């Protein structure tokens, strides 16, 4: 659907060139909701704006729907852009036009007849839940409703791809959820591929099938959302996930770890383990096994169970104490059983 090959983008900044995208390779599949996450300045907007050539890369290929946008004539590019809708953080509605006329704008610009416009826009406003507000002006509707207009406008030309650049960043959490639900619905019911940019893992968690993590103009991590959540490889990814599953334990829990470490009998060691796992079946028996078969003491300190699109995602902080060899064996056993384990040094007596 979208095939990005060796793509680089450089801006001419006032203090010299800014290498905003460095050799990006990415393949976005038809029908998926693909998330792109990163901190401010990572290059997310730069990348998504290459997907409709609002930004022109200096090198590489941007193949959308089988055509390399960089090879197209102006007329062909206009045609190709009809298949690529875009929604923006600040909605970009025209204040002097009604909801209906804002949504209809791309069709008007393309010279579509009034009758055809009505035929297309009326059901679209229905889909985004704004049929009853068609004659209002942007100043007379809420932020969430404005974004619904933005989505209707982006869908007006019947695109196969919808690009969303921080579409929910200006909205409160509940409105964010409802807009993301709408994007999911558009994806499922109309079969539109959605590319969604955000700096919030919460957004990725709610809607994306796969996610790419960007840092300093590069894609540094890529995978299915559940995999990335359970087994993040890069520090930046970990820190983005922290917003949902805090890695820093509450002070009261840390005090408890201290107390447990100090209270260890001679010959025993203790280790604070951070466990994360996906899917719910195997988990309980695994912990029981540690206690029963390996003779470890486990204190569960902190835990959180979350849901990523119907799949359980759990994280747990436990303090394991027992003979050092048994702790090592326990970690290996957990890993063999699909539990990701991170050891945190503050738990050991010897540390
Ligand atoms: N028009 C421009 N001219 C020069 N530099 C730019 C321009 N637009 C963006 N940049 C620079 O390119 C880099 C990537 O910016 P970009 O807007 O793509 O980041 P972003 O990930 O979308 O950030 P944010 O989350 O803040 O929107 C930044 O260093 C930015 O300062
Ligand atoms: Mg941006």
Model description:
The chain is α/β, with parallel strands linked by helices and 351 residues long. It has two domains: 2-230, Rossmann fold, CATH 3.40.50; 251-347, ACT domain (Alpha-Beta Plaits). 36% of the residues lie in helices and 30% in strands. The strands form three sheets. Strands 6-7-8-3-9-10 form a six-stranded mixed sheet, sandwiched between helices. Strands 2-1-4-5 form a four-stranded antiparallel sheet, with helices on one face. Helix 3 runs parallel beside helix 5 and helix 4 (114-127) crosses helix 5 (143-155). The longest helix is centred in the middle third of the chain and has 18 residues, at 173-190. Mean pLDDT is 90; it is low at 347-351. It binds adenosine-5'-triphosphate and magnesium ion. The site of adenosine-5'-triphosphate has 13 residues, from strand 1, strand 2 and helix 1. One of its GO terms (biological process) is amino acid transport. Residues 2-241 form the ABC transporter domain. This is Cell division ATP-binding protein FtsE.
Q: Give the strand tally.
A: 14
CATH architecture designation of the largest domain: 3-Layer(aba) Sandwich
Q: Low-confidence parts, pLDDT < 50 over ≥5 residues? A: 347-351
| Spatial gap, N to C terminus | 52 Å
CATH class of the largest domain: Alpha Beta
Q: What would you call the structural class? A: alpha/beta
Global Rg: 25 Å
Count of discrete structural domains: 2
Summarize the biggest pleated sheet: 6 strands, mixed
Mean pLDDT: 90
Write the element-wise H/E pattern from the N-terminal end onward.
Answer: EEEHEEHEHHHEHEHEEHHHEHEEHE
